[in-house]
Design a protein that fits this description.
single chain; alpha+beta; five-stranded antiparallel β-sheet; 24% helix
Length: 351
Amino acid sequence: MWMWASVPASRPAHNVKRINRRPAADIRTSSKGVIRAQHRGLLVICPATMQASRSISLLSAVGLFCLNHIPMQARSLVLAFDSDYHSPMIVEQIWTANAWRNFNYLIACPETGEALAVDPLDHVRCLGLAKDKGWTITQIINTHEHGDHTGGNQAMVAATGARLLAHHQAGDRIAGVDVGLQAGDVLTVGRTVEIDILDTPGHTLSHVCLLTRTDAPALFCGDTLFNAGAGNCHNGGHPKALYLTFTSQLAKLPDNTRIYPGHDYMLNNLQFTLAREPGNKRAQELLAALEAHDPDNALITSMALERAVNTFFRLDNQEVIDGLHQEFPDLPANPDEKTVFLKLRELRNKW
């Protein structure tokens, strides 16, 4: 459960926020000078462009960390920390390692052990993890109707007897739906977890996202929003609806909202961002830092980071607009944000 922030490298360590009290970290340095220090409560990544030294000490005794010998000329440091240390909610992200690069999720109440399974395509992994944790899956939710999100339903229901939930208009395309969901509905999991349902058309017209009522909200966004990208609209969706979902709902989420997408496309999406906005330093640093990206231990971005590196949130960026003029000579001199979004989605379809 990671949340991203950016702290100037020149800022003294005592200005870095308290994280939590956890054991010492595993610190590794790649051949290209990328430092990755990680433990359950803290992740620090120093991009190769920073030429950071190996000297990182994590002062877990007081819940602070200190970065020694980071060059003053380094622009920024990509940081991530677990902001849900005493959370009323436990999230497990499950990497399926399949050809579609799916993520499945379990959201659990730590008090009762009740759990909600989100798009549990890999029912074997989901059921196995729930068993290992001692959790009882009482609800299953499909963010939308595509088979790579619904394919585990039958086995999950048979094994758990859980209720199946989905968008209220997806019932004729998802077998066995028990509860149809609409915008404004609130799900509860056990005693401590509350989740708002968002109606988020675009990838399909029967798509829901889940937004938790936690201090640091978590967005389970299926195929609507990806890390540094946006869902396609090939199979039952519409790019104009996706644009409205992005601008009227997702763009209004607070910066500390954590993003849990349905697939791992982060590296390819960052490359697309840099194709459209080559001068995006944050995207450059993040791509360099993720050279050894492991989806089984994925980084969870925040809305703040998405606004910095996701081109579909950067619709007024002049470099993005200038690049679109090269691709589409008939584009108006000052295109509106909707036009920019639709043209970006058109280009991403071919990427």
